[in-house]
Design goal:
This protein is of the alpha+beta class. It has two domains: 74 residues, Glutaredoxin (3-Layer(aba) Sandwich), CATH 3.40.30.10; 100 residues, Glutathione S-transferase Yfyf (Class Pi), Chain A, domain 2 (Up-down Bundle). Helices cover 59% and strands 10% of the residues. It is built from seven helices and four strands; from the N terminus they run E-H-E-H-E-E-H-H-H-H-H. A four-stranded mixed beta sheet has the order 2-1-3-4, with helices on one face. Helix 1 runs parallel beside helix 3 and helix 1 crosses helix 6.
Length: 187
């Protein structure tokens, strides 16, 4: 059985897993799953009991949660190492991933991109208060990442790591907004 990656085509987290699979040169079959569908299949819920994306199937091994998936792919398949060997650098990578997932995703994607780009494309009005909160949250997240970057760790040259791959899809959505481009230019 080949590797299967289940996820939603617009998902930041599906994109993270796809980037890591590409970096490792792993062939896989992608299975589209819309986690927002009201009729999410029981077969998918058997893979991911919380009904989110992505989920990875490698033979008889099923894994969900993007951080676990990206680390598994790096460790289970040949190709370039995507995690630093040195404990402090590896810990810093983990910290960056946590900052990205816990403090960057919501303001950069849900509060800015969705309010400015995705929602209006679907005919939804923009909630300017959400945009304001997104700008404030994005500013804090970028400042924290910049402080780490200034230490010369990940995100400031050297070999790409899982931290870079967790941040890249979020920045792609974020910079689709004027606010995102302007904030990123200042950091």
């Amino acid at each position: 059985m080949a590797v299967e990656l289940h996820g939603y085509k617009y998902s930041v987290y599906l994109r993270v897993a796809r980037i890591v699979l590409a970096e490792k040169g792993v062939a896989y079959r992608r299975v589209e799953v819309n986690p927002f569908a009201e009729d999410l299949s029981q077969s998918y819920l058997d893979l991911h009991p919380f009904g989110r994306v992505p989920a990875l199937v490698d033979d008889d091994f099923v894994l969900y949660e993007t951080v676990a998936i990206s680390r598994y792919i790096d460790e289970a398949f040949s190709g370039p190492a995507l995690q630093p060997k040195e404990p402090r650098k590896r810990a810093r990578m983990g910290q960056i991933i946590s900052i990205v997932d816990s403090y960057s995703y919501w303001p950069m994607v849900r509060q800015l991109y969705v309010q400015r780009v995705s929602g209006p494309r679907r005919g939804r009005p923009t909630n300017e208060e959400e945009v304001r909160r997104g700008i404030d949250g994005s500013e804090r997240a970028l400042a924290a990442l910049e402080a780490i970057s200034n230490e010369g760790e990940q995100l400031a040259g050297g070999d790409p790591s899982l931290a870079d791959f967790h941040l890249a899809p979020i920045v792609a959505y974020f910079t689709a907004t004027d606010e995102g481009r302007n904030l990123l230019a200042r950091h």
